[in-house]
Request: fold
Amino acid sequence: MPRQRFSVTINSIRIVYRNLMTGNSFSQPMNQISVEELAQRLSSGDASIQLVDVREPQELAIASIEGFVNLPLSEFAEWEDQVPNLFNPQAETLVLCHHGIRSAQMCQWLTAQGFTNVQNISGGIDAYSLSVDHSIPQY
Reply:
């Protein structure tokens, strides 16, 4: 397993562990938004939505969607305390990753932090590239 993928896995485990130790559960229902709905929201120019991408910088260098704030899951310990200052917990928050797994973890964590309107982007940037914008490279 490459070192980068290993660090993402370790940090994902830390998030799960922290939630388990604090009594938070990943069994809560999660709101999803399709990549087609995301495209409509982005084209509407709605400035009230918060866009979070939890992929690694190397992944962003390959494929990205404009407007997303990058919070790499592997750097969770470095940014977790900044989230309340960066984002409004009551605003609609859409979370993206490669396929929807890491973003689902982030959605659960944000919800546990008191965010009230969080949605996972189903299928991630991979689905966005396949269904919405073919100019975005797949990896």
Q: What stands out?
A: Residues 3-21 form the longest helix (19 residues). The CA atoms of residues 33 and 121 lie 5 Å apart. The first strand starts at residue 31 and ends at 33.
